[in-house]
Amino acid sequence: MNTSIPTTLRLSSRPSAAGAVLAVGAGLSAVGFAIAVVGLIVDPTVLTGAPAWMKPAKFSFSIAVYLLTLRWILSHVRGRARLLAVLSTVITVALVAEIALVEMQVLRGTTSHFNESSDFDAAVFYAMGGIVSLVLIATIAAGVLALKQRGIDRGLAAGLRWGIGVCVLGMLAAVTMIFNKGWNDSGGHTVGAADGGAGMLITGWSLEHGDLRVGHFIGLHALQLLPLLAWALLRWTHLDATTRARLLNVAGTTYTAVVLLFTWQALRGQSVVRPDGETLAVAAALAGLAAVATVTVLRRSRRTTAVG
Length: 308
Known about the structure:
By secondary structure, the protein is mainly α. Helix content is 68%, strand content 3%. The protein contains ten helices and four strands; from the N terminus they run αββαααααββαααα. The chain has helices at residues 17-42, 54-74, 81-107, 119-147, 154-173, 175-178, 213-220, 222-236, 241-267, 277-307; strands at residues 46-47, 50-51, 190-191, 210-211. Strands 1-2 form a two-stranded antiparallel sheet. The longest helix is centred in the last third of the chain and has 31 residues, at 277-307. The protein starts with 16 loop residues before the first helix and ends with a helix. Residues 1-14 have low confidence and may be disordered.
């Protein structure tokens, strides 16, 4: 069996405007991350119970990873160079602007999200809402272009499809924060109290109440994890493309359910580290179904191979 990686998996050796724009955006995000790290070291300011520069650090790092991942995904697209360049520019400018706004608000000694304490703060908050909308639309468009490509390995295509789809779901999960106005008229990520209070190290997720950022975070990073799983199955197993695609369907469905599970848990005001019996029962059922589905796919593959 030929286990070499198809040419569609390799980055194009030809320079592209879209790839260059996304690379520049990732570089600028890295600069934003470096600034935030310096801020963490030299500035003791605390906002909503966490170091003021922690949020810019997390945002800039996450955005850099997102832009590099999108660059890799779009490297599989042939043609549509002008449209890809436009989409990449929109996404890059929007996300770099978001990093700049978040860091600007830290320098002003205030929060960036869910902050309408002044007309200027409200304008910043609404601008970031517009940025998220632009990135969501552009990501969907770029994903459609990538998935319309022919000649991509079926297993990889499944990983890309699920990665993009669940990433969009993660973006949409942030909408719940806007309507979470029980403790802040502008919204917030904590359910059961105002934002702030005891939180997990680095992530800041609430240790006492529901936190809508958990499902949002997990969903966003499906863009890296599911395509990576697809690549690993292709690179290090002898499974055929159909079997790998089926396994990615199991993984993608399970991952979607996990995002919804954590969002549901948060909406009930429950901390991610304090799941009740109901949450644990659903998680156990989900794990069991995923295991059964995986075994079924692998057994089917073995029977097919034996018959062949």
